[in-house]
Write a structure and sequence with these properties.
It is a single chain. The chain has a single domain (about 35-240), classed as START domain (Alpha-D-Glucose-1,6-Bisphosphate, Chain A, domain 4). The chain has four helices and 13 strands. It has helices at about 15-25, 65-75, 75-80, 185-215; strands at about 30-35, 40-45, 50-60, 85-95, 100-105, 115-125, 130-135, 150, 150-160, 165-175, 180, 240, 250. Strands 1, 2, 3, 4, 5, 6, 7, 8, 9, 10 and 12 form an eleven-stranded mixed sheet that branches. A hairpin with a 3-residue loop joins strand 9 and strand 10.
Length: about 270
Amino acid sequence: MSKGGEVAYIPDDSDFSNFQNQCESQEGWSKQYNKGGVTVWSQMQEESMTVQKIKMQIICKDLPPETLYDVLHDSHYRTKWDSNMIETCDIGRLTVNADVGYYSWRCPSPLKNRDFVTLRSWLPLGNDYMIINYSVKHPKYPPRKDFVRAVSLQTGYLIKATGRNGCILYYLTQVDPRGSLPKWVVNKASQYVAPKAMKKIYKAGLKYPEWKQRHNPGFKPWVYPEQNTLPNISLNELSLQHADSLENIDESSFTEDRMHISDNES
């Protein structure tokens, strides 16, 4: 999503339009999985053997798009359903529809865990919604010794309304994991990890209304900006996170029989 240079920027309408086109287009994508309402495509990037674009789609019957949008924003609820998450926090807000956050992610052993600092922006479009992010550097959140700092080149969600009470969720991600990963890891991601993660989000969406009724039901700062209590931060505090400035570890020697994915990992 970079527009060039070192300066972080807030995505504009053209960025959202481009992201939506990538989600909905079939051109250049290779289908990896199609089962149970979940489809996964991949697109290997010519300049890298580890940076891959993965796109997923799940049909969500009986799940209104605005509910799924709330689920993807609600960091408190995320602790209930995202078993991969180790830690998350909102660092500060840039505008009424853009903020900066930190997220650390549990990788299947023996891979090292990853973390990200991202600039996130969102756009409601009637009954459809988009949330997109990319990696930035923030002076108070430098790389940590206990994580590999990964880079989101572009990641996001597109929620499209279908019928009266359903939606389709697209998830597109292009991440540099900062590691020389074996090919079987990439294959496992598209054949097993990705479909399971999409089903988990769908199930979380179905349970959200009942949970939200018991947990501050009127608090939705992503819908009502006046509720947002995050400190204001300036774009001048941020810069683009370039992958080549980060540690690149070699995990290519790990064999598949050493990999462990528990029932709680997605």
